[in-house]
User: Fold these one by one.
Assistant:
Number 1:
Amino acid sequence: MPAACDPDALLSGLDAEQRQVVLAPAGPVCVLAGAGTGKTRAITHRLAYRALTGGLDPSRVLALTFTTRAAGELRSRLARLGVPRVRARTFHSAALRQLQYFWPQVASGPAPSLVTAKAALLGEVALRLGVRHDRASVRDLAGEIEWAKAVEISAEEYPAAASAAGRQPPAGLDPSGVGRVYHAYEQAKSARSLLDFEDVLLVTAGMLAARPDIAAQVAQTYRYLTVDEFQDVNPVQRRLVELWLDGGRDICVVGDTAQTIYSFAGADARFLTEFPARYPDAQVVWLERDYRSTPQVVSVANRLLRGAPRRPTGPGLTLVAQRPDGPDPRVLDFPDEVSEARWVADEATRLLTEGYAARDIAVLVRTNAQTAAFEEALTARSVPFVVRGAARFFDRAEVRQALTLLRGAVRADPGRPSGGLAAGVGDILATLGWGPQAPGGAAARTRWESLSALVGLAEELVAEDPEATLVDLVADLQSRATAQHAPVADGVTVASMHAAKGLEWRAVMIAGLAEGIVPISYAESPDALAEERRLLYVAITRARDQLVLTWAAARAPGSRARRRRSRFLDEALGTDSGAPRARREPGSPRRPTASCRVCHGPLRTAAERAVGRCAECPGGADPRLVEQLRGWRRGEAERAKVPAYCVFTDATLIAIAEHRPTSPAELLRVPGVGQVKLERYALAVLEICGTGGTIEDATGDAPVGFPAEIALPGATIVS
Ligand code: ATP
Ligand code: MG
C-alpha cells in the first residue's frame, strides 16, 4: 500500500484544523476556509480517510463541483490517495444522469432532447417579438433568463423580481419586455420538446420532489455528499442538494465567502454562512493557514479584502501565511496596452530562463477581449501558451481535424498503439503536419501548440493509467470538448480571472488593472463592486511565489494617458506600510476638475464633457462597434467631401456606441446628435448599431452563455 493509502500517513500531511475536518464523525460538516488553506485537500482527505478506515463506501459518495475541470481534479486527487471510485461530478452532470435514468418511470415517451443552439432559438424568439437580436443582445438575454431560472423565478414573476433585485434588463428592454422574451422562449422550447441546461436542474428537482420513491433510491445510491465551493451554490442547486440528501445527514460543504464571484448568475453565499444554523449539530471548522502563497502575496490579498465595505468578520477570514518569504509583489504601469503585453511576454521569457516551467506561469485578465494582446505578444516571443476558458481550443480547425482523425483511428483499431498511446497519437497527428519540433511563424506555432496539447493529453492519460487506449483518449477529449475544457499543455496560461478559480501557479501576472476594466465599467452598484473586488482577490490568491500587477495608461500607443489605475490597487498595496507602490509616470495628469466617469481621468474637450467620459475609455461601448461606425463615417465624409468630424465627432460616435440606440428617438437623445444629423444619418447608424456587440464578460466556466448546454453529453450512464 503506498504511503498515501495509509490512513495515518493521510493525517500526518494535515494541520490540526484540517485533521478536525477529516476526523469529524459522520454527519453535517461545514468548512469555512480561505483561499489556499487546503479546502480541496481537506475534502479529499476526509473522504479518503473514511474510505480507508471502513467508515464509508467510496462508490456511494457524490462529490459535487461547479466545473468539469474541478470534478476531474477531485477525482485524480482521490485516486492518488488510494480511493479511485468516487463519483465527482458537476451538478449538471449528476442531475442529467438521474433524469435520463428515471425518465421512463416518470413520463411516457422519450426523454426531451437538450437544446444545442440556445443562441439560435433565443434569437429566433427575439426576432419574432421584434426585440434586438444581435449576438450580444441575445447573449445578455440568455444570461438574464439563466439567472431567473437559477433563482427559480418564472417568466411571469420576472418583471417584479428583476426590479426588486436591481437587475439591468438587457437588449434595450424593460423588465416586462424581458419577461415576454423569457415566456416565448420557454414556449418555443416546450413546443419542440427541448430542455436547456437550467431545465436539467429544475426538472430533476421537480421529479425528486414529486416522487419520494425515486428520491429515496437516489439517496440510497449516494449516501455521502460533498460540495466544494459551496459559496457558489444557487437556489435550485441548494434545493437539489437537500433532495439528494432526502433527510440524510452525511454532508460536508466547503466554501469561502470571499471568493463568491457568481452572484450575478444567482449564486448565494448565504447558503454557506447559514449552513450551521440549518444544521445546528454541524461540525464547523475554520481554516485560515494559507499553504499556497508567500507572506508577501497573502498580505496583498488580506489588504484588498480588508478594504471591502460591509466585509463579513469572523475567524478564518484573514489568511495567515505559512510559507517562507518570497519576492515583493510588483506593480507596473505602462503607457499603453501594447507595451504592457510586450513586458508581460518578456517577463514570461525571463521566468522560463530562470527555470520556471511554462505551466507554472499565468497571465490573468478581466475580460475575454483582453487575452488577444497577450496571445500575440507571447507568440511573438515564441513562448508556448494555453488560453483557458477554452471554447476556442476545441473550435480551432486543427483540433477539429485532429479529433476526426483520432475517431477514424479508433474505428480502425480501438486498442493501444503498439509504440504506446502518446507515440501513436503523434503518428496520427503527423498527417496534419505535427512534429516534435515547434515550427517558426505565429500561425504555424499556434497550430503546433494545439496539436502538441493533444499529444500531451495522451501522455497524461498514460501516466494515470498505463493501460489507456485510443478509445479512452477520444472519450476524454470528447468530454473535455463538450465541457469546453482545454487539455493542459506545457504552456503559459492566459485566462480570465473567472476561469482561474481553484487553480494555482508559481508566478501570476494580473494585467489590465485600470479603472473601467477592474472594476469593470458596468459594475456600478455596491454589490457589483463587491463582486469585482472578490474577483481580483481570487486572481491574487492564485499566486504561489511571484505576483505582478500591471495596468496601462492608454489603450493604443500614441494615445493620451488618461486611464487611472484600479482603485483596488491602492487598497491592496496599502498606504500605511512599505508595501510596493506603482511607479508614477513623470508628467502624469493632475486631477482634473471634470473627470471621466469610467477612468476618472481628465475630460479635455467639450464633447468629452458632454458624454462624461473620455474618448479612449471602454465605457459600455464595444470597440468593434466604434470601429464599424468609424468606417461608415469615413465613407460618408468622403462622399460629402467634408472632414470626418463634420459627420460626427469621435466623442459622439463613442457615445452612440455606448447608448446603442434602437430607434430615432433614442438616437436623438445621444449628445452630439441633432435633428439635422438625425434625418441625414439615422437609418445607417441604427442599422450598424443593430449588429454590433458589447464587451463580453469573461466568465470561464460560468453558467452564463451558450457553451454549457451544448456541452451536456447525451449520456445514459447511471450509477
Ligand atoms: P482555493 O480557495 O483556491 O480553492 P483551497 O482552499 O481549495 O484553495 P487547496 O487547493 O486544497 O486549497 O490547497 C492549496 C495549496 O496548499 C495546495 O498546493 C495544497 O497542496 C497545499 N496545502 C494545503 N494544505 C496543506 C498542508 N497541511 N501542508 C502542506 N501543503 C498544504
Ligand atoms: Mg479548492
Number 2:
Amino acid sequence: MAKHSDSDDGWEARRNRIIGLGERSFRKSYYPQLRQNLDRLERFRTLLDRTSDFVVLLALPEGTIIDANMALAQLLGRPLDTLIGHPLASLGVADATAILDDLRREMSGPVDDGEVSSHSQIAEYRLEARSIWLELSYRVAVVDQRSYGVLMGRDITERKRSHELVTKLLAEKEALLDNALVGIAMLRRRRIVACNRRFEEIFGYPPGTMAGQSTRRLYASDDVFSSFGNQVYDALNDNRSFSATLMFARADGSTFWGEATGRVIDPAHPQDDSIWVISDVTERREAEEKARFLAFHDALTGLPNPLLIQDRLDQAKGFADRAAMKIALMVVDLARFKTINDSLGRGVGNRLLIEVARRLRNCVQDTDTVCRQGGDEFLILLPNLADAAACAIFLAKVMDNLLIPFKIDDRELVITVSIGIAVYPDDGADFESLLKKADMAMYRAKGAGRNAYHFFNAEMNGDAEEQLTLHFGLRRALDSGQFVLHFQPQIEIASGTLIGAEALIRWHHPEHGLILPGRFIPVAEENGMIVPLGEWVLRAACCQARRWQDETGLPGLVVAVNLSALQFKRGDIERSVTLALQESGLDPSQLELELTESILIQETEKVLATVMRLKHMGVKLSIDDFGTGYSSLSYLKRFKVDKLKIDQSFIRDLATDSESAAIVRAIIQMARSLGLRTIAEGVEDKPALELLRLYHCDEAQGYYFSRPVPADEFSGKYRTPIPVCAS
Ligand code: C2E
Ligand code: CA
Ligand code: CA
C-alpha cells in the first residue's frame, strides 16, 4: 500500500500515537522499527506486483479502486494510475455491480473477524475487440474496523479455450462415431467395452444396452462363436488385423451377413482391447448374387441365358464322349407371339413369356437346361441321350404342354411352336455350329406348319417319329390287349429235358404287325410304361405256367420273366410278384426273375433288400446277359442268385473264337465254384451245344431247340419232349 490519503483514519491514529511519544524517543526507538516496517512493506509490494494473479483493493461501500497490483495493469494494458481512484465498473468487468452488491451485503452482515465468506465466479471481460475470460474471487477484508473489498482474479482465457476445444472435439468424435455407417466397438476378452450407436442398431439392441455384454450373443451359434473366436484371436495375438464376412445374429434371433474387421489397440498387449468395425453387407451380398444371377440369366423369365447353356454344353460333352451318349440342342420358336405382343401390348406379351418359361421348365429334368435366347425364342439342352430319337418323347411333352391355352387377364391365348433340333456329336462339336443347325432345322419345322419339330439330320426325323408312334401307342396297346407273350424253351443239357421257358413280350400292332421288344422296350423305359407293362408280363407268364401244369398234369415248368431297372426304381416289384403268384396260384419256385447287372449296381442297399425279400418268397433269380456288364463277383454272393445266363454274344462264336470259349469256360467254372447254375442263351447249333456240355454248362436256350413261340404252340413241345439231338 504505497499511497494513502491523509484522511485515512487508521494511519492518522497510528501516527498520532507515535508522535505522542515524543520526537526524541521516536527517533531513538521507533525509527529503526519504522524502517524495518517500510522494508517489509516494500518486499510485500514487490511480491504482490510479481504474482500472476491480479489483486484489486476497493474502498467500501463506494467501490472505488484504492489499490491494485501490476498484474492488473499488464492484463488491461493500462498504467495503474489510470485505474486507481476510479470505480470498479471502469475495469469493464461485466458483473461489477453484482460484485459490489455482494461485498456491501457482506460488509453490513455479521463480521466474524476476518472469517468472511469469499465469492468466486467466471466472468467475461471485453477488452477492445478481444474477449477474455477471468476467474474472479472476492471477499471483504476488515482492517482497523474499516472494510475493504479484495478482488482477485486471473486470466483463464487460454484454459477455457482449451477446455472448450476438448469438449468440442469430444462432441465431434461422438457425433462421428454415432453417425458412422459402420458399427464400431471396443472389445476386451470377448466382451463389449464400448460401442457406437450404429453397432447397436445393426444388432437390433436399444441404445446403451450392449456395453458390458459378452459377444456370444452376436453370433448365430455357440459353434460359430468359438470357431470364429479362435481364428480371430489367433490373428490378433499375432498382431495382425482380421477381416471376415460371416453370419451374425440380431437381438430378435434373425441373422444377417456382416463384414467384420478387427485390430488390437496396443500391439504390445494383443490380449487386451481390440477395435471392431462391423457393417451389414446383406444387401451388398444379395446385390452381388443378383448381379451374378443376371449375368447368366434372363431378367424377365429368370431362365439362364445362352452364356450358361453354352457352359453346360461344354461340361456335358466330356461325359457324353465317355459314355457314347448324345446331346440335343433345341431351338423353340413361338409362332404367334409377335401378333399377341403387337395387338395386346408388351405387358401381356411379357407375362406370356414368363408362363411359357414356367411350362418349359416343368418339362425338363434337373440335368437339362432351358434358356431364353431373347425375344420369343428359347433354347433347350438335353444331355445324356441314348440316341437322338430318345428326345422324341420330350418333344411330345413340350408340344402338349405349350398347346394348352394360356390364361392371361381372363383371356385365353393360344400359341404354336416350331422346334429345331441339332444333335451332338452328329451335327456339330461346338455350340455355334449346333445352334446354327438347330436354327436351320427350326425354319424347316416352321415351313412344315404349326406345332412341328424337325431334326437337322433328316434320318433322325424318321427315328423320332417312330419313337413317338410307339410312345403314343404303348398305353393304348396295353389297354386293348395288343401284347402277347412268346415262350422259348430252356433245356437241361445233361438229360435233354425241357425244364423251363423264358417269357418274351411281343406287340401285335394293328397296322405295323409284329413289333419286337428291342424296338419298344427302350421307349417304354423312357416314358415309364415299362412299369405297368412289366406287371402285365408277370401276371400273364405266371398264369400261363400254371395253366400248362393244370392241362398236362406234368410237374411244373419254371417260367423266366425279364425285369427292367425301372421296375425296381419306380414300381413296387415285390407287390407285383406277390399279386401275380396269388392270382395264378403258381408256386414261387416256378417263377424265375431275370435281372440285369444294371439293376444290381444301382442304389445297392435298397435293391439288395428288395431282392432278398423276393428270394425269401421262394422265387428264383438269374442274371441275364452275364459277361457283358460289370460282372462283379461280390454281388453274385450278396444277392444269392441261383443262375447265371451267359450272354449270347459269347455263345454265338463259341466254336470258332477261342477267346469266347475261354470266357464261357471261366464263367462256368466260377459259377460252379460259387454253387450257381449256368444257362447258355442263343445256342444255335450242335457244336456250340457240345462244347457247352463239355464245359459242364447246366442248361441251354436258343434257336437250335426252338425260337420263342406262342403259348399254344409251346404246349405241344411241352407234351412231347424235344429231342436234344434235333437238328
Ligand atoms: P433277352 O432277355 O436277352 O432275350 C433274349 C433274346 O434273344 C430274345 O429276343 C430272343 O428271341 C433272342 N434269342 C433267343 N435265342 C436266340 C438264338 O438262338 N439266336 C438269336 N439270334 N437270338 C436268340 P427278343 O425276344 O427280341 O427280346 C429282346 C430283348 O427284349 C430281351 O433280351 C429282353 O431284354 C427284352 N425283353 C423281352 N421281353 C421282355 C419283357 O417282358 N420285359 C422286359 N423288361 N424286357 C423284355
Ligand atoms: Ca432274358
Ligand atoms: Ca439275354
